[in-house]
Design a protein that fits this description.
Three copies of one chain form a homotrimer. By secondary structure, the first copy, chain A, is of the alpha/beta class. Chain A contains two helices and 19 strands.
């Protein structure tokens, strides 16, 4: 069969009306009730707003006011965790983050993709799972279907497309194992 | 000859007055007439605005309202294509994009460079050419003088500095061939 | 000893009150007196504002209005240098930049880290040193404790975690030597 690739002339992918309405309401609440409350003292308030939109968030977790969240109802974060400034949580699919885990500033969690083997290029909503006691350092990229094991460290600016084994340190683009985190 | 490197004490590179005036007018129109119209229903309007500033844009193409465009008159996009949210189209040189091509969110198309072998470090306005039926995935970087062949796929967060052969899949920084896209 | 990793249940890292007050005042001045003055003609004014907050800046240096600076008092830039649009100067530790050096747009200078070998994950304020006649190209990432030698060129989108030797050209993530810059 010959190479034909995309034919996007009938591309009309669309989320459900329910999803669209949910996101419009979330956008308004984000700008009015979440984004302006950027002091540390409001971290409980910000979690409360997210939980009102279906997020599951543990206690003592801090999600910065500048974090972008596509769909709070697809977000689950444990306790004592931290999501830093300007993290982009692009959770068209589910994103689950454990306890005592730190996601540093500007990291991009991208939980969806497209199937480029099909001419109509369908969106695929997938997932990202990040375990307990993980550190994802600044400006990293975590792609869809990635599982990051407990205690792993993902280096700054690295781009992760495959699962990361527990208690390993990875870095680079594409990310590779640099060393074991060791025990302490 | 000894290493002397840059001497920027007389650096006064500047675009032409005509270019500067054009960009000032474009900036105003961008903020008033382009950026606020971010619903899908306004995609034709956004293309119309860009075409008024000299862009060549085919039919049924969607350029998101949050796309940054340095100079619309250096932009050419085919039909049935899509340029996603927050793409940065830094087209001091020409950027040409084909039909049925998708440029995903946050991608940075950087069509110019500097000649670092000269002490006065001159700006070089070059080009980027992206073929038909290409997918450039999220947050990629495409450098100056790059040609991306028909049907190629550029992985998320990858950084492309060399030409990409048609119907190949590339990824990483620097981007390398991962596999052939195959036929379907 | 078993793997226990982070225990962030008592995490309460905080900068000194003096630092916090300084940054609040700087934030106000940034938005009122620095960020709006984005014409080239105001480059001296912008340097003056930064110097008022303790920065050391030489003459004929241009720091774009869209540059983000965490703490001006931790910034030192020489003469005839340029820091481009949207550079993020995350200088919780000191960042020092030489003469005739160009830092291109969107580059992220990240001078601090965390010690992930300790359960309480302490912040470590480190430094970045960039020599004379260096070019850091667009959207690069420079990590903590990095020294970039005189005359080096750091490629676009590259991520630098180790020292860069003088008069070399590096690129990629992680950045590696591509070639010598040579003499001219």
């Amino acid at each position: 069969m010959e190479n034909r690739g995309f034919d996007l002339s009938n591309y009309n992918f669309s989320f459900s009306l329910r999803n669209k309405i949910g996101r419009v309401i979330w956008s308004f609440c984000y700008f009015l009730l979440f984004r302006p409350f950027n002091l540390e003292t409001f971290k409980g308030w910000r979690s409360f707003i997210l939980k009102s939109f279906g997020a599951k968030i543990g206690h003592n977790t801090s999600i910065q006011a500048s974090v972008r969240i596509w769909a709070p109802w697809n977000l689950e974060v444990g306790s004592f965790s931290s999501i830093g400034p300007k993290v982009d949580c692009y959770n068209q699919g589910k994103i689950k983050i454990g306890d005592h885990t730190v996601i540093s500033q500007k990291t991009y969690l991208c939980a969806s993709s497209h199937d480029y083997t099909l001419p109509d290029f369908p969106l695929i909503c997938q997932y990202i799972t990040i375990g307990n006691k993980v550190w994802v350092a600044a400006d990293a990229f975590i792609g869809p279907t990635v599982n990051i094991g407990e205690g792993a460290v993902v280096g700054a600016r690295s781009a992760v497309f495959k699962d990361v084994a527990p208690w390993t340190v990875v870095g680079g683009n594409p990310a590779k194992i640099i060393k074991n985190r060791g025990t302490f």
